[in-house]
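Extended Data, panel c. Modelled sequence:
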Amino acid sequence: MSDFDTGPGGTDEKIPFMQQLLDSPLLLLVIGIVSPMVLYIVWGVMETIAIPLAQ
């Protein structure tokens, strides 16, 4: 994939990073799977730490 796109005027324009990110289905799939997984792991660790110790 090229970082440059020939527009209607024939000039080379750099494709913005966010557009490249949103045009990649595999990368969106990975982000959609990894981000909830990381959030649930962090949430679980926080909940585990919050359990009071038995006496």
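The beta strands are 4-6, 12-14. This feature is highlighted in the accompanying rendering.
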